[in-house]
Write a structure and sequence with these properties.
heterodimer; A: 225 residues; alpha+beta; CBS-domain; 9 helices; B: Arginase, Chain A; eight-stranded parallel sheet; globular
């Protein structure tokens, strides 16, 4: 899962000499929040966000489409004045996992994607990552989610998959997650079927405990940071 | 007492789904038995099915799709488009009978011969999309009925109320851009139940925005939640929309004893909900109401649920 395959390649960009108003217009027109800033040679110089622009302009100005003369100075502000220069970028050869961890760590909404020579290749935003995960989870296909609590030992998943296979059911996705109980795992199988009663009984008969969805709480998982 | 029709036909039992499938002919026999044993048959006009003309099916479904389904059936395929959709050589004909029977009922309700009716049909329909069979469903029975009412009888506004525990993705998709058919569904939250659609933010598209309404029920929720949803969501929505006919997608699988899902509606909760829908229909739609069976798989509970349902329709 490489960034090059998940990023937005047709990037809307701006130049350092563009005014903030022009940049604001671009963001608005394309319904985006991040604009990479490039030089004449197409190399990445910086990034500017809707938040940067909002902070740079007084609130009254921002609300008003036709600013009063007192706001005139602000119209002279350029992207170069406000952008974050040399932003953290990510490579097309990095992976989605790299981007996820980086985005969480740096608390940003998007990374410009830049090749080894410094040329802008695309942008990867939280939105792109969400799309990738919706794909991976398969939740846009019709199906039913089963949560199964298992002891953490080799061979558990095989038993589960065998039981599902015996019922002639295909899996949209299977996710194995940590669980708050020691030495336990939670297996989330997204089954592409409407008929889950029999497979549920079968799993229970095999000694597995079905997770009560109302009891499942991400917050109870041990946190890393 | 109302003049209530019952669409029931033993040919509906000929749609066979093979071993280990929950959507079995015994569902219908259990439903019929429940109605009969409570002594309700004598009050009902029992109406047999007749095959729907293709042209009415094709007002909703693509011609190619209908042809593919027929070919698969005649070919002796044991399933169609998904292992969920188990079938036999008779399935196509039975599916035509189900739709045709409902259209016959629709005629009798519009021309005043009947006030309302329960259509105990198989196969069910609300998952079937324009060109896709899904979740045991081949033809979208209620969608064809709504379109028929509008085309043949020039009814302007039809409401479809779907309380099957699963979201009727097919019905929603067919009418989501249509402001003349209001689709209301209450079902188990799509993160926990098939088919994974019907989220609360799905409210119709384009001209149909505001004419789809989804209420999601969390696992374990039951009567109290349904009561609140019917009073605060469904009631006001119907009052605003003013349907001239109400079609109900009746699924009995939200019952606490039905293991197809995790919602905990009681038998009494079901009865209350249906009575409330009938009161709404009396107030808004001149009582014109067609109930069409969708899911419901607990053979032990189906007799009482069906009998209560029909008793509510009869108002006795």
């Amino acid at each position: 899962m490489f960034i090059s395959k998940s990023m937005t390649s047709k990037v809307i960009t701006t130049r350092p000499g563009a005014t903030l108003l022009e940049a604001r217009e671009l963001l608005k027109t394309h319904k985006i929040r991040h604009l990479p800033v490039i030089g004449d040679d197409k190399r990445l110089l910086g990034i500017i966000t809707d938040r940067d622009i909002r902070s740079a302009l007084p609130a009254a100005f921002y609300r008003d489409d036709c600013p009063d003369p007192a706001g005139a100075d602000y119209t002279q502000l350029t992207v170069g004045d406000v952008m974050t220069p040399d932003p953290t970028a990510i490579s097309p050869q990095d992976t989605i996992e790299d981007a996820l961890l980086q985005i969480q760590k740096m608390r940003v909404g998007a990374f410009p994607v830049v090749d080894d020579d410094g040329f802008l290749k695309g942008i990867i935003s939280v939105r792109d990552l969400l799309r990738a995960f919706i794909n991976v989870l398969g939740i846009e296909e019709p199906g039913t989610l089963l949560g199964i609590l298992v002891e953490e030992k080799v061979g558990q998943l095989k038993k589960i998959v065998d039981a599902i296979t015996e019922e002639n059911i295909s899996c949209g996705s299977i996710l194995v997650s940590r669980h708050w109980e020691k030495d336990m795992r939670a297996v989330f199988a997204y089954l592409l079927t409407n008929s889950v009663s029999r497979v549920k009984r079968k799993l229970t008969d095999l000694g597995f405990e079905l997770l009560d969805p109302m009891e499942w709480a991400m917050d109870r998982l041990p946190q890393h940071d | 007492m109302k003049r209530t029709g019952l669409l029931y036909d033993e040919r509906f039992l000929k749609h066979l789904t093979g071993a280990n499938h929950p959507e079995v002919p015994e569902r219908l026999t259990a439903i019929y038995k429940g109605i009969r044993d409570r002594g309700l048959l004598e009050h009902l006009q029992v109406i047999p099915a007749q095959a729907a003309p293709r042209m009415w099916i094709e007002t909703v479904h693509d011609r190619d799709y209908v042809a593919r389904f027929e070919a698969a059936c005649r070919n002796g395929d044991s399933s169609f488009e998904s292992p969920d959709n188990q079938m036999c050589a008779d399935t196509f004909d039975v599916a035509l009978l189900a739709v045709g029977g409902i259209l016959e009922i629709a005629d009798r309700i519009v021309n005043g011969e009947l006030d309302n009716a329960f259509c105990a049909v198989r196969p069910p329909g609300h998952h079937a999309e324009k060109a896709k069979a899904m979740g045991f469903c081949y033809f979208n029975n209620v969608a064809v009925a709504a379109t028929y009412l509008q085309t043949q009888w020039l009814i302007e506004r039809v409401a479809i109320i779907d309380f099957d525990v699963h979201h009727g993705n097919g019905t929603q998709a067919i009418f989501e851009d249509d402001p003349t058919v209001f689709y209301y569904s209450i079902h188990e939250h799509p993160s926990f139940a098939y088919p994974g659609t019907g989220r609360a933010f799905e409210a119709g598209v384009q001209r149909g925005t505001g004419f789809t309404c989804n209420t999601t029920v969390l696992p374990g929720q039951g009567d109290d939640f349904y009561r609140e949803a019917v009073e605060k969501e469904l009631g006001p929505a119907m009052t605003r929309f003013r349907p001239q006919v109400i079609i109900v997608s009746t699924g009995f699988d939200a019952h606490v004893d039905d293991d197809m899902a995790d919602v905990a509606l009681s038998t009494a909760g079901y009865a209350w909900m249906m009575e409330e829908i009938i009161r709404l229909g009396d107030r808004i739609a001149d009582g014109k109401l067609i109930s069409v069976l969708e899911g419901g798989y607990c053979l032990e509970r189906l007799p009482e649920l069906a009998a209560d349902h029909v008793q509510a329709l009869l108002q006795i």
